[in-house]
Design goal:
This is DOP1 leucine zipper like protein B. One of its GO terms (biological process) is Golgi to endosome transport. One of its GO terms (cellular component) is endosome. It is a single chain. This protein is mostly helical. It contains 53 helices and 6 strands. Strands 1-2-3-4 form a 4-stranded mixed beta sheet. Strands 5-6 form a two-stranded antiparallel sheet. A hairpin with a 7-residue loop joins strand 5 and strand 6. It is elongated, with a radius of gyration of 47 Å. The N and C termini lie far apart (about 150 Å). The N terminus and C terminus are likely disordered.
């Protein structure tokens, strides 16, 4: 009927119900039971579809079956469509037989079925796709999708063309307004001249004077005229005008400089938007979303790359399909509109267009996706929020499709030889994929952080006053803030990750540009120079990979800053961690700021945790943005991946890396170790605090504990992540880790200063560092002591931001606290490593605080292990003790000098001395003491050394030397007292801090009888010194103890003192001998205990006037605060 009887055909086509019935019959014939009728049914069905008044009649029947609720019906419909598809191949591909209509809607439904959640439906559609691609049907499949993507409503124009048109329009309107104003002025002047005839003579009389002001204002004539009239103020006006001119010049220079800076800044910003395309009308995003969704389903379903392979080898030939003429026509018109021409105008010849049309289907799809990515709505177009949101979804979808294409190209590139990569190279460079991806990412990041800037700078206002359009002002980004940019940025990061991998495979072993250098050294030098130029460039540099682009490196360095959005940080961390093997020369450049920013973000979270409930940190609370609860874990895992990749051997990596690049990155990461370990210590403090509070709540000491911070609820996982970061580093980089801990220790200063303490008292933050080290299973006590020894021997391990930091003193401070924290059993098991640390450290040129710490470590060790069974250990302990005490004794004598060149006697330097409790040096000054020379530094450390010896020396020697070895200590004590007695002989006011410390030392030492040979003679001489009582009242108690010990240890000393005749002494002047002797005899009795000398009462009574001295001088003032409670300068 349709073929041979046109009359019946006309009647049939006028009845819609009849068409539907016939269509249903023909569709039902395409089942498995009537295969012999399939060809004729398909031909009739196609003719009916073309002749029907509406294309939806036949399409509705197919689509209803493909979308039926019954799965069996849907599967049968897929089978029938497959039959229809294959039998219409010759009709659709042959231009002489092609018809005006195809089954586009049905094809779209089948393509959409590829992503169906029902496995049987998607499998059936997948089978159709694989078979269709194997039969070269890729153009037939893409035909309706391309028509959607090239719909006329999606036309766009470059932002440069629109900017030029707007500038021309503005200039024309200004010229028109100026012309109208001139016409009005001329009309007014003519009217005035004709109306004002009576005043013509007056005006001519004043012609010379009235016509000169306009030029004279410019030439300064008016100013001169004013000066001549006001001749009395000539000098003042001259000075004022010169000052005003200078001020105006300075202001003009400042304004010019500000304008220049703002122009450069504006130029850098506008360069981010010069690639943008603008839609002239709204509404085309619906077609684009539909087409991109179908394309995404096709790409997702071809996981084994058959679609990309077909796209890569299929040309855009208009003779291969019926509707490709329309596709080609639309493509030319879109390119014509993009170049600034009319979309509906006459088509230009291909030679007149600046850009060549794509020749392969994959080039066409990639270029279209990049156009959608670059397209925005202009700011002058009236839009609804739905239009803006729709365009953002188009951009995200286009990047997703691009990412799938690039991923499948990667799979293809892995299995090809280097010679077969040329087509992929041409695709990437011809479409400028990397350039547009980086530009779009940089622009999106700028938009997302732009909301944090409040107000405009003065330079921006000046630029706006001067006029001019900026590219940024022409683009409508919406008013939703930076969070609307996050979906696009996430997809762009996925695209960049795929492109980085593809670049590595495509250009692996190939030079991206020809190098004229001949020798290998010259080629390496030229490569390094070109890399530096690329890495510093603000724009995209051709022939360099993404990882060597300054745009990418800059974005990576800024990505984790708070103003770019916390929601994006995990995605950036994932990108950079997965791209580590491909970074090449950029590895060290990228990871250094990344590590630093990760540590700063972790530190900010800890500060927020510590101050929770109070004033929160501004950088975290200023942005109205939710941070994921696992945010610190994400950062910590990224930090672990980056650090371990750069520092540890990566034998499992499938990508070969240049050893030079890895070494440079390793050095950069080692320099960042102190900052990383500082963050680890802060996190460990959070773990300790949370675990302590949890244990307290479990034991019933407090209410049920709930963490105040949502980020640190899972402390068990956090502890595990910290250990996973630290443990692998301690084996290969133990010395660097320990030296970095020394830097961290130095930075954790105590807020409370402990007065009268020479040895430091560890703060809570420093205790946390010790606990963190103790939790590392790879760092046993002997290992820690060995590493500390290595760091102290070579303290220049870590380079800071400006200069290297000496970590020997902080390392010894850490050791002092660490040894105090371990058990006595652990100390017993590590005697040899500890003695080795002390022995080798005391031989070094340490600053005075270092020797103090060695003495403190030794004292703690001896107090906790008083008895050593091993005789060798005992001998070693005595040797170490002697060396350390001699070193501290030398520091104690640093404020002494020889009385003459040949004499061995010493005297106190005439210089001010600083008492430790009055001005306690902090850790930083102590750590840098060996590199600084100060006139007051020796006095500070000499007083501290005396105070420390007074506290430690006597009990230490008593435990180091056993009862049968006490005499061995006497020579050592004598050598130490050689530096002490000169301070006790000097009663000057400036020496009082050393005098008091020396008296305390002698007081503690004199309590042991075996030491008397080292001091009894000198003490008696000091006791008989005419200036003996010239001292501060605080020293009296020490001397009371010293004299008591002297008289107690020497049995006849008191009797001899009481029997001494003043005439036999030549110590004082004749007039003062008797009262001086009586005073010393009275002080001797006062120093003893109650009734200690009652046996000598007859002898005491024989001494004249001694009772009066005891009653009058000492009993009313037990502290013998002589000389007006101060110092005395003369004899008593």
């Amino acid at each position: 009927c349709l073929c041979g009887f046109p009359v019946y055909a006309g009647v049939l086509l006028q009845s819609k119900d009849m068409l539907v019935r016939v269509s249903r019959v023909l569709w039902s014939q395409l089942d498995t039971e009537r295969r012999e009728q399939h060809i004729s049914c398909v031909e009739l069905f196609c003719r009916l579809h073309c002749l029907a008044p509406s294309a939806s009649i036949c399409e509705d029947i197919i689509c209803q079956a493909l979308l039926h609720k019954d799965k069996a019906v849907r599967l049968e419909a897929l089978h029938r469509f497959t039959v229809l598809w294959h039998l219409t191949r010759e009709i659709q591909t042959n231009r002489t037989m092609s018809l005006s209509r195809s089954f586009d809607r049905s094809l779209c439904v089948v393509v959409d079925s590829l992503s169906c959640t029902d496995g049987s439906i998607s499998a059936a559609a997948q089978c159709w796709l694989v078979r269709a691609l194997s039969l070269s049907d890729v153009i037939r499949i893409l035909e309706p999708i391309l028509l959607l993507l090239l719909h006329p409503s999606t036309q766009r124009c470059s932002i440069q063309s629109i900017k030029q048109n707007l500038v021309l329009c503005v200039c024309e309107s200004e010229e028109t307004e100026e012309g109208e104003e001139e016409d009005e002025e001329e009309a007014e002047s003519e009217h005035t001249e004709s109306a004002d005839t009576s005043g013509a003579q007056v005006s001519t009389d004043n012609t010379s004077s009235s016509s000169t002001p306009y030029p004279s204002i410019e030439e300064g004539g008016m100013v001169n005229g004013l000066r001549r009239v006001e001749s009395g103020h000539t000098q003042a006006s001259d000075s004022l005008s010169s000052e005003d001119e200078e001020d105006l010049e300075l202001e003009a220079m400042a304004k010019s400089r500000l304008l220049k800076q703002e122009r450069e800044k504006r130029e850098a910003i506008d360069s981010l938007f010069r690639h943008v395309l603008l839609y002239p009308v709204a509404g085309g995003w619906r077609h684009l979303l539909q087409g991109l969704g179908l394309l995404d389903s096709l790409m997702r379903s071809s996981a084994e790359c058959p679609l990309v392979d077909a796209l890569s080898f299929t040309s855009l030939d208009t003779s291969s399909a019926a509707h490709l003429n329309l596709v080609s026509n639309l493509l030319q018109r879109h390119q014509q509109a993009q170049d600034g021409k009319n979309f509906y105008g006459c088509l230009l010849s291909p030679s007149s267009t600046p850009s060549a049309p794509p020749s392969l289907l994959i080039e066409l799809l990639v270029s279209l996706c990049l156009r959608f990515l670059r397209s925005h709505y202009p700011s002058y177009l009236s839009l609804s929020p739905l239009d803006l949101q729709g365009n953002r979804e188009v951009q995200v979808k286009s990047v997703a499709v691009l990412t799938r294409i690039v991923n499948q190209l990667c799979c293809t590139a892995r299995g090809q030889d280097a010679s077969d990569m040329e087509s992929i190279r041409r695709l990437l460079s011809g479409c400028k994929v990397q350039q547009y991806a980086l530009l779009t990412l940089s622009a999106s990041m700028y938009i997302s952080q732009r909301g944090t800037a409040k107000g405009q700078s003065k330079g921006v206002e000046l630029l706006e006053e001067q006029g001019g359009l900026s590219e940024e002002s022409l683009v409508n980004f919406g008013a939703g803030g930076g969070q609307e940019q996050y979906p696009l940025q996430m997809e762009l990061l996925n695209l960049l990750q795929a492109l980085i991998v593809l670049e590595y495979h495509v250009w692996s072993g190939e030079t991206r540009e020809s190098s004229p250098a001949s020798t290998p050294l010259a080629r390496e030098w030229q490569t390094a120079v070109l890399f530096q130029q690329s890495i510093k460039a603000a724009q995209y540099v051709q022939s360099h990979p993404i990882t060597a682009q300054g745009m990418f490196v800059s974005a990576a360095a800024r990505a984790l800053q708070p103003q770019y959005g916390y929601a994006m940080h995990p995605h950036w961390v994932s990108l950079l961690c997965s791209s580590l093997p491909y970074l090449g020369r950029s590895l060290g450049i990228i990871v250094t700021p990344l590590i630093s920013q990760i540590c700063r973000n972790l530190d900010e979270l800890v500060k927020l945790y510590e101050h929770d409930g109070g004033k929160t940190n501004q950088s975290l609370s200023s942005r109205k943005e939710n941070i994921a609860p696992d945010y610190p874990l994400t950062l910590l895992e990224g930090l672990t991946t980056i650090t371990h990749y750069c520092l540890l051997d990566n034998k499992r990596s499938l990508v070969a890396c240049d050893p030079v690049d890895v070494r440079n990155a390793r050095n950069a990461v080692i320099e960042a170790l102190p900052q990383m370990l500082g963050s680890m210590a802060l996190l460990w403090g959070v773990v300790m605090r949370e675990e302590f509070q949890r244990r307290a709540s479990d034991s019933g000491q407090s209410s049920r504990h709930t963490s105040t911070s949502v980020y640190f609820r899972t402390t068990k996982v956090l502890r595990q992540r910290i250990l996973e970061f630290l443990l692998p580093l301690t084996g290969q980089y133990g010395v660097q880790v320990m030296a970095s801990l020394g830097v961290v220790w130095s930075n954790r200063k105590s807020k409370r200063r402990h007065k009268n303490k020479v040895l430091p008292v560890a703060s809570e933050s420093r205790q946390t560092i010790v606990e963190m080290v103790k939790s590392l299973s790879t760092l046993h006590t002997d290992t820690v002591l060995h590493l500390v020894k290595e760091v102290v021997k070579k303290p220049h391990q870590i380079k800071g931001e400006q200069k290297s930091t000496l970590v020997d003193i902080p390392m010894l401070q850490f050791s002092f606290t660490y040894i105090q924290s371990i058990s006595a059993q652990a100390l017993q098991e590590n005697i040899a490593p500890l003695l080795s640390l002390l022995r080798e450290s005391v031989q070094l040129n340490l600053a005075p605080p270092g020797h103090f710490l060695l003495l403190g470590i030794l004292n703690d060790f001896v107090n906790r292990l008083p008895n050593l069974d091993n005789k060798k250990d005992t001998r070693d302990l005595q040797e170490v003790t002697q060396r350390i005490l001699e070193a501290v004794g030398g520091i104690a004598g640093s404020s002494l000098e020889q009385t003459s060149w040949l004499s061995r006697s010493l005297e106190v330097k005439v210089q001010p001395q600083v008492c430790p409790e009055a001005d306690e040096p902090d850790d930083e000054s102590a750590a840098q003491a060996s590199t600084m020379v100060s006139s007051s530094a020796p006095s500070v450390y000499s007083v501290q050394a005396l105070v420390l010896l007074a506290e430690i020396l006597a009990p230490l020697l008593d435990m180091v030397y056993r009862s049968d070895e006490k005499e061995k200590a006497v020579p050592l004590i004598s050598r130490l007292m050689y530096y002490v007695f000169p301070y006790l002989k000097n009663h000057s006011a400036y020496n009082m801090p050393s005098f008091e410390a020396g008296a305390q030392l002698l007081s503690s030492l004199s309590g042991y009888a075996y030491t008397k040979r080292a001091w009894k003679k000198e003490v008696f001489e000091l006791f008989m010194d005419p200036l003996f009582f010239t001292m501060d009242a605080s020293c009296a108690q020490s001397w009371k103890s010293i004299i008591d010990h002297l008289l107690t240890h020497e049995k006849t000393m008191f009797k001899d003192l009481m029997s001494m005749q003043s005439s036999s002494l030549k110590l004082f002047a004749n007039a003062d001998q008797k009262p001086m002797l009586l005073k010393r005899q009275a002080f001797a009795m006062f120093s003893g205990e109650l009734d200690q000398y009652h046996l000598y009462l007859p002898l005491i009574q024989d001494v004249p006037d001694v009772s009066r001295f005891l009653v009058a001088d000492f009993h009313p003032a037990p502290d013998i605060s002589l000389a007006h409670n101060g110092y005395r300068t003369g004899n008593d």
